[in-house]
Design a protein that fits this description.
Length: about 170
């Protein structure tokens, strides 16, 4: 891999993106390069609906909410903004894949993305990871969720069923 001058990471607060944020922060720390966390936002109802009833006030609120999600991701993923890494956050309007590729526009960037669960919704709407891998002009590092995150994403009922399968039946002594 060529020399990396900055690390761009897609962040939106999901378990997968928090794992990517942790990994990207560690990469930035080890390489002594700036970390550029990016959150992309689209107005509720999409751009077309917002253009029909444009509201600068609502646009400001949506942008502020994106900033809050970005800062919350640092709290959730790293316990706050790291003091030993130069952080240059970005809040950009647009679809996530194109926004990440446009920010990571240099060959000496490293784009870090989290991988999520596979499923019907992802198949219908496409994958940010696939978009980035197909269109990025820099190396892309796809970070899978940790085993604990993968376990948590299946929900409590699935965990309960697997847990009970591991506990042997005990004879009733009452």
């Amino acid at each position: 891999m060529p020399t990396v001058r900055r690390i761009i990471v897609g962040v939106h607060g999901s378990l997968g993106s928090l794992q990517a944020l942790r990994h990207a922060a560690e990469e930035a720390r080890q390489r002594d390069v700036p970390l550029h966390p990016v959150i992309a936002w689209v107005p509720p109802g999409g751009d077309l609906a917002e253009r029909r009833n444009s509201s600068p006030y609502l646009r400001k609120l949506w942008r502020e909410a994106a900033w809050e999600r970005l800062l919350a991701a640092f709290d959730d993923g790293l316990g706050g903004m790291p003091g030993d890494v130069q952080v240059e956050p970005h809040v950009e309007r647009g679809e996530t894949g194109p926004v990440l590729v446009s920010v990571a526009d240099r060959p000496d960037d490293l784009l870090v993305i989290g991988t999520g669960r596979r499923g019907l919704i992802r198949a219908l709407h496409g994958s940010v990871g696939r978009y980035c891998l197909a269109h990025a002009k820099c190396p892309v590092l796809a970070v899978p969720p940790s085993a604990l995150m993968d376990e948590m994403s299946h929900g409590l009922r699935a965990w309960h069923m697997r847990r009970h399968a591991l506990i042997p039946d005990t004879p009733d002594t009452g």
